[in-house]
Design goal:
heterotrimer, A alpha/beta (285), B mainly alpha (280), C mainly alpha (261), A: 285 residues, alpha/beta, 31% helix, B: 280 residues, 11 helices, disordered N terminus
């Protein structure tokens, strides 16, 4: 698939991204992004871009600084160095073109508001009539497969459904990019598989652009068009790996491809060099 | 070949219990009621027995109850109740609204919170009774004195609770409010205020009790008309049974207040884990 | 840059200091009967309490307060734990507890005088009867709501009942118990003062009353300041004890400024 980032050289599946050209297909760009808390440097030098229609996954071990990075990207925190640009404008506070899905749905959805009210909250700045807002909420709920749930409270729903509501809230305003902070970490494996496929489907149907932060390597390779690997202290971009698994992914078929296993091993090697040895013995299809 | 978007949307409905489970619950609550009544009777008997040792100087259960019964037939009693109630509700409303406004405003800023901590702590621990004579001198034995002291007593805990409420707001909610780019009014209305309600409603409950306490104290020690004065009169007249009766009345009034404020709290906080867990 | 502790101290103190200064200068030339100049009140405070009345009034009051408060905690925590561990019994007696708790403590004062006379035991008794409720209720709540997972862990570790109580349940309930204990402390101080305004011959409350009867308003204000200081010191001491006893609670509930990755 076409990427608006320039490549330099190729070694197997590894591509190293250097600075991308000014491109109106670039939705999000992080340049020399860094952050420190006093003397503690949490983020080193982070560079990457996300182009329109891409799903970019950022993966790294727990504690490396992924959430810090995400908060800087989302405009919730001013990085101490570097810049973040979204849709051409520098990000200093949460931009209009961006929506965020937080990890803990039980804390990011307002328990005192029903599902519809939670979703229309995202439209509170829009000059749209109340009836229309409710319509939009119902539409987006249908998109994520939750028709008829609007008049329930979030805590009456299962974990997977709650996270879908959070995703619906992110989508209702038609953002240029959706940032997701380990969105499926708190659900069970089965639900996670369903939600992953939903993200792929949303991209296919709506052309949604996604930046997804995760610690799950399988998820990163399964979902991503490109995988940004963070590691080290302070966190820096190790590699950005192109995932040539095509746009249509399938839980069973895609994950049994050799390429999937190889990519997975590559990422694992970057994160935990010693553990990669065991992962190299990938099953044949 | 995608596996498709979603699991079928399930209608979220509270599970209904089968009828035999419902009636079992009813039986349980009936036996609970019976046990409670029995416990109360036992308590009353203990009271009666223990008071017997005081040789008429300490009100017995029977004397108190009959005195209360008699008093409830007099208009003087109900006037006193109304006086106390009026003072109480007025001071409560003022204390709660003012306290919440101050506390929420302060709590929103870490700097202000820390700057005022010493001041609020100090004010909170000044026993309002210390100011009682001064207030009585200035305002006389009127409802105004009771009002002023009750507000003073109840406002500081309310302020403290409100500061806590504003400070404890879940950081995720703050992030959500910011990333949704909510305007200030919307932020307060849909996020901060509801999130603060658990603390605020506890503050209201505490304030309600304190206002009653102070109102009756001013009546008892200062002579403002109300239940406290009834108690004082009974004391001077050495009407032992009546003392018991007024204490019972005050207790019942307090119980009513507590029950109502608790019920209101549960209603307002229907979404809170502590309340909704009961239902599930 | 300024050391952290210094910055913290300044943040906490600038406002009180400012207010005191304002009070000082605003009242300096006051001739009002009820609001004497602050320096007169401070003088009275110094003259009366440091150290003339110290022994005769302050110490007895504090003694009663200490005995009353500790007794309160003892009764509240043991009864509260028992009730918390016996939920069905607690349910049955709950109406009684609710009623007793709702009786405004002040109304019991005449009864306490009848029952215990006018001496120290009346004061201690009244303190206990008025202050026991917040701690009691919070203890019941805290013990009852100990995380079920934690309880399961304790059981699967086959801890003895005593150990389970001492090392799992009580520590888990401790934050809530402390919250109740703090309220009980405030109540205890108030009740201490009130009980001393009835037939006492010594104590802070007695002194306050006497000052008012003698129209020694400066002394009255001095005593009020003393009470405020006392309350403040007690509260701070309480905080210190709390921080030492349950340090983990503070650390967990503070929202750290550092984001976890």
């Amino acid at each position: 698939m076409a990427s608006c980032a320039q490549h330099a050289g190729q070694k197997g599946n590894r591509v190293t991204q250097i600075s991308s050209s000014r491109d109106d297909r670039v939705v999000l760009r992080a340049e020399a992004l860094g952050h420190r808390y006093g003397d503690n440097i949490a983020l080193g030098h982070i560079d990457f871009t996300v182009c329109k229609g891409e799903i970019v996954c950022v993966v790294g071990p727990s504690g490396v600084g992924k959430t810090t990075m995400l908060r800087c990207l989302a405009g919730l925190q001013r990085p101490t160095s570097g810049t973040v640009t979204c849709a051409g404008h520098p990000v200093e506070s949460p931009p209009k073109e961006m929506a965020v899905v937080f990890q803990d749905y039980s804390r990011s959805l307002m328990p005192w508001l029903k599902v519809t009210a939670n979703i229309t909250l995202a439209l509170s700045n829009e000059k749209i009539g109340r009836a229309r807002k409710k319509e939009m909420a119902a539409e987006v709920l249908a998109t994520v497969g939750l028709e008829g749930v609007g008049s329930s409270y979030p805590w009456q729903l299962s974990g997977g459904m709650q996270q879908r509501v959070a995703i619906a809230r992110a989508l209702v305003g038609h953002p240029a990019i959706v940032l997701m902070d380990e969105p499926f970490a708190s659900v069970d494996a089965q639900t996670r598989a369903d939600l992953e496929d939903m993200v792929i489907d949303l991209r296919a149907r709506l052309g949604v652009t996604v930046l997804l932060v995760t610690h799950d390597i399988d998820e990163a390779v399964y979902l991503g068009d490109r995988v940004v690997v963070l590691s080290g202290k302070p966190a820096t971009v190790d590699e950005i790996i192109d995932v040539d698994l095509g746009e249509h992914r399938d839980q069973i078929q895609t994950k049994s491809k050799t390429l999937f296993a190889d990519l997975r091993a590559e990422v694992l090697e970057l994160i935990r060099p010693s553990a990669a040895d065991g992962a190299r013995t990938s099953p044949a299809p | 070949m995608n596996r498709g978007t979603a699991a079928p949307a399930t209608q979220a409905r509270a599970p209904t219990r089968p009828s035999r489970v419902r009636s079992a619950a009813a039986v349980r609550s009936r036996s609970l009621l019976a046990l409670r009544v029995a416990a109360i009777l036992v308590a009353l008997l203990c009271w009666q027995w223990a008071a017997g040792f005081a040789a008429g100087a300490f009100p017995t259960a029977s004397a108190s109850i009959s005195a209360l019964w008699t008093m409830a037939g007099t208009s003087a009693f109900w006037t006193a109740v109304a006086d106390t109630a009026q003072s109480w509700i007025l001071s409560l409303v003022v204390a709660v609204v003012t306290g919440a406004a101050i506390g929420l405003a302060v709590g929103g800023s870490r700097f202000l919170t820390r700057s005022t901590r010493v001041l609020f702590d100090f004010m909170r621990t000044i026993p309002p009774v210390a100011l009682l004579p001064l207030v009585l001198l200035e305002l006389g034995a009127t409802a105004k004195s009771a009002f002023v002291l009750s507000v003073f007593a109840a406002i500081w805990p309310m302020v403290q609770q409100s500061v806590d409420a504003a400070q404890q707001i879940d950081r995720t909610l703050v992030d959500v409010a910011r990333s949704l780019r909510l305007g200030r009014f919307e932020r307060v209305r849909s996020v901060y205020l509801p999130s603060a309600t658990p603390f605020l409603s506890t503050g209201v409950r505490v304030a309600a009790q304190l206002c009653l306490f102070m109102t009756i104290t001013v009546e008892l020690l200062g002579g403002t008309p109300g239940l406290g004065t009834l108690l004082q009169n009974a004391e001077s007249a050495n009407a032992v049974g009546e003392i018991g009766g007024v204490v019972l009345a005050a207790g019942l009034f307090g119980l009513l207040i507590n029950t109502v404020t608790l019920a209101q709290q549960r209603r307002v906080l229907h979404w809170h884990p502590s309340v909704r867990a009961v239902a599930s | 840059m300024m050391p952290r502790w210094l910055r913290a101290a300044l943040t906490e103190l600038w406002l009180p200091v400012l207010l005191v200064l304002l009070w000082w200068f605003a009242s300096a030339s006051s001739t009002s009967l009820y609001f004497p100049p602050l320096h007169a009140s401070i003088e009275a405070l110094h003259r009366d309490w440091f150290f003339a009345q110290f022994k005769s009034d302050l110490v007895p009051s504090l003694k009663n307060l200490a005995v009353g408060y500790l007794l309160t905690l003892l009764i509240a925590i043991s009864a509260g734990t028992a009730l918390g561990l016996l939920p069905r019994f607690e349910e049955v007696v709950r109406p009684i507890v609710e009623f007793l708790r709702s009786v405004p403590g002040i109304t019991l004062l005449p009864l306490m005088v009848v029952a215990l006379g006018l001496g120290g035991s009346m004061r201690v008794g009244t303190i206990v009867i008025a202050a026991v409720w917040p701690t009691l209720l919070n203890t019941i709540d805290g013990v009852r709501s100990v995380d079920l997972v934690v309880q399961d862990v304790a059981r699967s570790l086959r801890l003895s009942r005593g150990n389970r109580l001492r090392r799992v349940i009580l520590p888990a309930a401790a934050p809530q118990i402390f919250a109740g204990a703090r309220t009980s402390l405030s109540i205890a101080v108030v009740v201490m003062v009130v009980t001393e305004s009835v037939g006492a011959t010594g104590g802070i409350g007695y002194f306050l009353l006497k000052a008012e009867q003698d129209f020694d308003i400066a002394s009255m204000w001095g005593t009020i300041i003393l009470l405020g200081l006392l309350g403040y010191i007690l509260n701070s001491a309480f905080r210190v004890v709390e921080a030492l006893t349950i340090p983990w609670h503070r650390a967990r509930s503070t929202q750290g400024r550092k984001a976890t990755a």
